[in-house]
Every structure is written in structure tokens, then in C-alpha cells.
């Protein structure tokens, strides 16, 4: 059948499409900046039609369904928290599901299938294919497996290349509504972040393949890589810093041992400039997250260097990244996927970087993890920890050696109390000069 006819037959208003959501359904929503914001706002406007609709996904965008007072209508159950869903969890109006990012597509395909998928797609190309754009991750899984697929067709969504395409015949309802994608504000890079960035950059060699987490530290690290040659990217996500180094010629992907010449990602968040940059750009490959974040795929990149952040590290090297005590802050995301992939990569390094304190008041290196916190990266997987005071190598080191390494990169104000704990634990004097 002519795809143009299919498209026209299925083109409806948001209200017509959203009436197909039933009370008690599980609704999967597109990820991060690819959230179909217009559809979600309309769904909230129509809230009286719904009772106990479960809303699921990962990093939410604006998440209007998570606003106060909507819980009898919408029950968010998310695998990662952002500002709106974190507040909803704190009000006990949302729940959190722990899940490795690489395992999210399998979970939605085989265990928690969605009744209705709400996604953003580009307008169809001349062959009748729409692209999921800047969020391939599990948004593609929702589009492929939702029992009912409702797409907001948004001309502002970049058409990205890789495994991002959905044929119009696989979508049940199209709602045309153009709205600029939400942009990620530029991170604030202070002195501490710059110092950490300098240490990280000193660990990166020409030809390395990088994964970068979100935030100021990865961007600060990239700022100190302007003298590097032929870097590659295989990363769950990227933002503007990667674009800047691609444009400057430091990232060429030429020496990658998997997907040579291509920047491989599963999603991105950045400025409008970046959204324009990836549009129809053959130097990028977007794949679903069960491919990009599979440690067995990641390890095929030689010299894989992954750079992530955390909330707390204890003296054994247990890394907490998603919670502060019992308060769920974010989730595991792709941290462990990349930590493992880098560990198994020939010449790989995994780096967890963080400021040494929370605003100078609390040491992030601590004798014990806070009661109630869940460990993200275990003592068996951890390798390098970086603060503004230096680099601690923990992989292959004893518990005593780890503690010494960590105390030496803790904030000076907290070293004495950490040293006291060391002496209590290991029965001998802490020597500041001994690694
Ligand atoms: N004790 C108490 N509170 C702490 C803390 C500690 N040791 N460390 C951080 N916090 C608080 C901060 O004060 C801040 O609180 P606020 O939001 O109320 O101000 C909050 O935790 C976040 O800290 P911040 O330093 O601003 O976080 P960030 O934006 O740099 O993100 C992570 C750091 C760890 C939360 C983030 O990297 C993450 O979620 N990681 C897990 C997922 C992941 O690594 N994915 C990989 C690829 S994207």
C-alpha cells in the first residue's frame, strides 16, 4: 500500500489519538529531549478520562504527568529520575525501578510491554520512514513494540542515521505538532571541575575511544583535549563538547576498532546547534541502547576510556552514583555498562570523577557509604577515582592500598579523619607519603 495514504489515513488530532489510552494501561514515553511534550501536555489536559495509567521510561524531559495532584490519574514508574520525577518520588507519587540502561529494551520487550507508546518522530522521508532522531535508546523499542504507537510528528526533530527508522505502517496514529526541542543549558565549569578535567585529560592518549557521562566534568575534560589527535567516541550520550572537538578535528574516529570513522551514540542532549549538526550527518551512528551499552560491544573498542561521576566513594572503593541514603537521586544509567566494557577493552580505563566535597561541607570520600544508599559500581569493577586533588588507582590494589590512594585525593580538611579510620581499620599508622 502507498505509505502516503497510510500516513493520511492515520493522521489525527492529539485528542483522537490519546482517547486510545485506557485506565490501567502502561504507557511508555520517549526519552529525555525526545519526549513528545505536546502529546504529554494534552494527555494531562484530558486527565479525567484516565485512572491509574502507569507512565514509564527513563530520563524524563518536562514530565508534565509527574506534577503534584495527578497521582490518581498517572502513576510514573521510572528507571532513572530527573527533577520532576524525583520530586514525585519524594512526595510518594511515583516509583523507581532499578535497571541497567543496556537492559531497558529487553525489559520493555519481554517483561513490561507497553500498551501505548508515545514518541516523537521526524516527518516521513521519501520512502515512508520516520526517524526517532536524537533518542534511539529504548524510544525505538517503544515504537517497535508498543501495542498502540502514537507519534508526535515534529519537524524540529533531527533525522539521524543508524538504526533509527520506523516505517509509517508501524505507527497507529500520527499527530502533527512542531515544537523546538528542549536544549540542555551549558554546564557551569568552575575551578574544581577544570582541575578535575585537567587530570582526566592527562589520562587520555591520542587514538583513545571515549565515553562521557553527563555534566560539567566531562565537558571540562573535553576542554583540555584540544591537543589530542584522532580520538573516537562510543558513548551512551554526548552533548556539545563532543561536537566542538569533532569540528576542531580532535575527534576523527579514525583509529576506532569498531565503527571506524563514526561517532556512535544512543542519545544526545545539547544545544540547537548540536541538533542541527547531527541532522542527516553520516559521521554519526545512533543505535538502540541494548547495542551501544552492551559491555561485549563496548569492549570491541580498543583503548576504551569511560568517564563518569558519582555521589560518594567509600574507603574500599564502593561507588554510589544514584542515591543519597534512601533518597533516590537518579539511577545506574549506563555507568556499569561502560565501566565493565572499558575494563574488558584492550588498553581500556574506567574513570569515576567527582569534586572532593559537596560545596566544601561534606567529603565525598567517606569511611562508609551512607546507610540506605545502593552501590552502583562495585569494589570489583572500580578502577580510577579522580578529584581535583589527583588520581587514585584502585583496580588490582588491596583494601589498604585503596584507602591510602583515596585519602591522598580527599579534600585536605577531611584527610585527618579518614586517616583515623584507616588506622582503626588496618591497625597501623597512616603515612601520607606512602601510596
Ligand atoms: N552526600 C550528600 N549529598 C550529595 C553528595 C554526598 N556525598 N554528593 C552529591 N550530593 C548531592 C548534591 O548536593 C546535589 O544535591 P541537590 O540536587 O539537592 O543540590 C545532588 O546530590 C547531585 O549532585 P551533583 O554534584 O550536582 O550531581 P551531578 O549533576 O554532577 O551528577 C551524578 C552526578 C552522580 C548524580 C550523575 O552523574 C548520575 O546520575 N550518575 C549515574 C548515572 C551515570 O553515571 N550514567 C552514565 C552515563 S550518562
TrEMBL record:
Gene3D superfamilies: 4-hydroxybutyrate coenzyme like domains, Acetyl-CoA hydrolase/transferase C-terminal domain, Glutaconate Coenzyme A-transferase
Superkingdom classification of source: Bacteria
Record domain Acetyl-CoA hydrolase/transferase N-terminal: where: 10-178
Domain (Acetyl-CoA hydrolase/transferase C-terminal) ranges: 270-421
Listed GO MF terms: hydrolase activity
Endpoints of the signal sequence: none
Entry-linked InterPro entries: AcetylCoA_hyd_C, AcetylCoA_hyd_C_sf, ActCoA_hydro, ActCoA_hydro_N, NagB/RpiA_transferase-like
Pfam family, one: AcetylCoA_hyd_C
UniProt keyword terms in alphabetical order: Hydrolase, Transferase
Keyword Transferase applies: yes
Similarity comment: family membership: Belongs to the acetyl-CoA hydrolase/transferase family.
Name recorded for this polypeptide: Acetyl-CoA hydrolase/transferase family protein
Amino acid at each position: 500500500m502507498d505509505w502516503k495514504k497510510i500516513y493520511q489515513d492515520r493522521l489525527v488530532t492529539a485528542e483522537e489519538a490519546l482517547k486510545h489510552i485506557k485506565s490501567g494501561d502502561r504507557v511508555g514515553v520517549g526519552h529525555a529531549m525526545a519526549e513528545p511534550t505536546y502529546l504529554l501536555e494534552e494527555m494531562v489536559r484530558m486527565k479525567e478520562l484516565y485512572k491509574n495509567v502507569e507512565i514509564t521510561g527513563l530520563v524524563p524531559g518536562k514530565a508534565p504527568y509527574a506534577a503534584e495532584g495527578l497521582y490518581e490519574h498517572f502513576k510514573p514508574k521510572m528507571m532513572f529520575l530527573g527533577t520532576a520525577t524525583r520530586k514525585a518520588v519524594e512526595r510518594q507519587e511515583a516509583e523507581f525501578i532499578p535497571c541497567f540502561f543496556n537492559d531497558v529494551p529487553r525489559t520493555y520487550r519481554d517483561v513490561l510491554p507497553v500498551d501505548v507508546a508515545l514518541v516523537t518522530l521526524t516527518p516521513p522521508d521519501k520512502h515512508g520512514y520516520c526517524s526517532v532522531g536524537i533518542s534511539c535508546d529504548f524510544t525505538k523499542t517503544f515504537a517497535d513494540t508498543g501495542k498502540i504507537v502514537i507519534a508526535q510528528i515534529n519537524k524540529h526533530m533531527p533525522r539521524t542515521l543508524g538504526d533509527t527508522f520506523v516505517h509509517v505502517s508501524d505507527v497507529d496514529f500520527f499527530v502533527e505538532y512542531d515544537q523546538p526541542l528542549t536544549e540542555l543549558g551549558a554546564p557551569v565549569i568552575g575551578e574544581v571541575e577544570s582541575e578535575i578535567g585537567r587530570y582526566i585529560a592527562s589520562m587520555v592518549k591520542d587514538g583513545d575511544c571515549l565515553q562521557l557521562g553527563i555534566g560539567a566534568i566531562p565537558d571540562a575534560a573535553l576542554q583540555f583535549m584540544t591537543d589530542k589527535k584522532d580520538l573516537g567516541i562510543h558513548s551512551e550520550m554526548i552533548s556539545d563538547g563532543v561536537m566542538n572537538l569533532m569540528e576542531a578535528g580532535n575527534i576523527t574516529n579514525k583509529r576506532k576498532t569498531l565503527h571506524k570513522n563514526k561517532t556512535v551514540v544512543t542519545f544526545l542532549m545539547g544545544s540547537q546547534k548540536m541538533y542541527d549538526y547531527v541532522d542527516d550527518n553520516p559521521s554519526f551512528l545512533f543505535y538502540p541502547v541494548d547495542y551501544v551499552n552492551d559491555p561485549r560491544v563496548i569492549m570491541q573498542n580498543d583503548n576504551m576510556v569511560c568517564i563518569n561521576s558519582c555521589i560518594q566513594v567509600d574507603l574500599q572503593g564502593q561507588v554510589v552514583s544514584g542515591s543519597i541514603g534512601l533518597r533516590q537521586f537518579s539511577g545506574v544509567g549506563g555507568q556499569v555498562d561502560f565501566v565493565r566494557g572499558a575494563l574488558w577493552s584492550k588498553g581500556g580505563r574506567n574513570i569515576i570523577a567527582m569534586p572532593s566535597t559537596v560545596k566544601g561541607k561534606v567529603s565525598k570520600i567517606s569511611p562508609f557509604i551512607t546507610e540506605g544508599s545502593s552501590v552502583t559500581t562495585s569494589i570489583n569493577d572500580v578502577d580510577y577515582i579522580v578529584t581535583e586533588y589527583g588520581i587514585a588507582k584502585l583496580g588490582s590494589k588491596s583494601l589498604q592500598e585503596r584507602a591510602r590512594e583515596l585519602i591522598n585525593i580527599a579534600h585536605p580538611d577531611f584527610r585527618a579523619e579518614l586517616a583515623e579510620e584507616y588506622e582503626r581499620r588496618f591497625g597501623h599508622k597512616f603515612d601520607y607519603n606512602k601510596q
